[in-house]
Backbone:
């Protein structure tokens, strides 16, 4: 049997065994949640935007939606009832929900590769029904273009079947896209890929250990996922990246000739608005107000990464022993297998007012605060871009997937971060925090503030991201 066909048969078999819950039809939203039921002129066009239902994907998609809305497009945001963001409709900005019948518990029990396949399968029927409904609404303006997360690769085939243009939006770095491609095409799924310092051919300075490998029980599905998301993004009417030519020109230049349509690097999208799934704890800001300038290390590992209790212990004591003020985001599901953060007992008493732990922070506001001097991050692409936009240097501790590639860019290419060992250890934490906040970190802080200016320039009139956005808008107007 042909390898792809075999994989697809395997996946179908696997999904049939997982999809025990019936897929509920799309639930229409009450009218109060719709900005307008019908789209009428004078909008420049009607765009439907659909994200992968995780914070790191939702945030840039909503930013893109707001940017395009401000340029005269009618926007319909589609989200899943699973992990729904808190969004308010407004004139010309409509919100639709599709129902998946997927519980948080079920999703949590799946590995990351399994989850992406299940979500692609589960979303297809209700998303299709919604698209058909939007297309046939009486008196409405038909959808002119779909903009969907590259990871939601099923939308490419669907758009082709429905005769609608689709643009893919890749919310992570373009270098990581090349890393994924290399894993699949060259079969780099081995131990070496996880540990070796050797440079990946044609991808320098990425080392084998920086490749965006994801630990999974299903390596064949991982390979299928990569091939689906890359080939379908490359086949889309356009591929949009939340990055800038000023940050990643070499990778973008390698991707452009592989794509059927144009590639637009329009980022970093960095509007101040929030689209958090979790409630932001605003006491961070009043606490930061009490700290000296550039004295605090902000510590957060994004919305997905899970740690074990021994890692939490090392992080906690490393931060405490550094003697520097810290603001640490400890999500309620941060510790694998437990519903509690598992901080060491007596830890907060010992730290006193020198540390603040919250479940979720208003991250962009935190990074922009004058008291923050460094960001200890897992190098999620949004965190990376937000730190660059704030000119804050990073301590890099990538956990999985694109984060490893991003860490290499931060530390080696842009020189605005310090690489940490994979095994977290309190002595190293203490040393890196001090290094970033004290005199030794001065050069890195200077580079971070230079990089901030470079990125700002690319977003300003005549800059590469500015021009890319204008070209994207022109293409969208002609859809
Ligand atoms: C995931 C992947 O890990 C990431 O590498 C990929 O690029 C996108 O999907 P995540 O792990 O959540 O995302 O990290 P990141 O990309 O940094 O996104 C997290 C987002 O949540 C950021 O926009 C950040 O501002 C926000 N956030 C995080 C908060 O608003 N408050 C917090 O307390 C923590």
Residues:
């Amino acid at each position: 049997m042909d390898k792809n066909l075999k994989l697809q048969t395997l996946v179908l078999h696997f999904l049939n065994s997982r999809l025990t819950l019936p897929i509920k039809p799309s639930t229409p939203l009450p009218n109060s949640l719709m900005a307008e039921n019908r789209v009428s002129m004078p909008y420049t066009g009607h765009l439907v935007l659909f994200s992968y239902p995780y914070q790191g994907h939702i945030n840039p998609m909503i930013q893109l939606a707001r940017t395009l809305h401000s340029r005269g497009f009618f926007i319909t945001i589609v989200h899943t009832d699973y992990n729904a963001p808190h969004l308010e409709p407004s004139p010309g900005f409509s919100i639709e929900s599709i129902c998946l019948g997927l519980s948080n518990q079920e999703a949590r029990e799946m590995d990351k590769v399994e989850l992406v396949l299940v979500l692609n399968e589960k979303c297809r029927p209700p998303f299709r029904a919604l698209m058909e409904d939007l297309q046939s609404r009486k008196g409405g303006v038909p959808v002119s273009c779909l903009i969907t997360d590259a990871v939601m690769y099923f939308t490419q085939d669907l758009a082709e079947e429905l005769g609608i243009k689709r643009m893919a939006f890749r919310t992570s770095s373009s270098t990581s896209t090349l890393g994924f491609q290399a894993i699949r095409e060259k079969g780099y799924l081995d131990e070496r890929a996880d540990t070796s310092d050797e440079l990946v051919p044609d991808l320098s300075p990425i080392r084998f250990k920086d490749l965006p490998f994801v630990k999974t029980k299903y390596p064949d599905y991982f390979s299928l996922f990569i091939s689906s998301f890359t080939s379908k993004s490359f086949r889309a009417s356009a591929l949009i990246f939340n990055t800038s030519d000023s940050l990643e020109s070499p990778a973008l230049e390698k991707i452009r000739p592989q794509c059927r349509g144009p590639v637009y690097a329009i980022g970093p999208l960095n509007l101040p608005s929030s689209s958090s799934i979790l409630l932001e704890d605003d006491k961070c800001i009043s606490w930061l107000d009490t700290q000296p300038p550039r004295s605090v290390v902000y510590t957060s590992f994004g919305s997905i990464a899970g740690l074990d209790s021994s890692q939490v212990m090392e992080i906690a004591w490393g931060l405490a022993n550094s003697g520097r003020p810290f603001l640490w985001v400890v999500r309620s599901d941060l510790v694998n297998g437990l519903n509690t953060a598992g901080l060491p007992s007596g830890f907060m008493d010992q730290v006193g007012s020198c540390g603040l732990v919250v479940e979720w922070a208003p991250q962009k506001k935190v990074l922009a605060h004058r008291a923050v001097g460094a960001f200890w991050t897992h190098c999620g692409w949004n965190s990376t871009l937000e730190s660059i936009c704030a000119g804050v240097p990073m301590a890099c501790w990538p956990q999985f997937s694109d984060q490893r590639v991003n860490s290499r860019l931060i530390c080696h290419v842009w020189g605005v971060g310090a690489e940490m060992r994979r095994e977290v250890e309190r002595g190293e934490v203490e040393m890196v925090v001090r290094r970033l906040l004290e005199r030794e970190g001065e050069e890195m802080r200077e580079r971070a503030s230079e990089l901030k200016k470079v990125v700002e320039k690319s977003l300003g009139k005549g800059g590469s991201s500015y021009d890319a956005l204008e070209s994207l808008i022109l293409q969208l107007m002609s859809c």
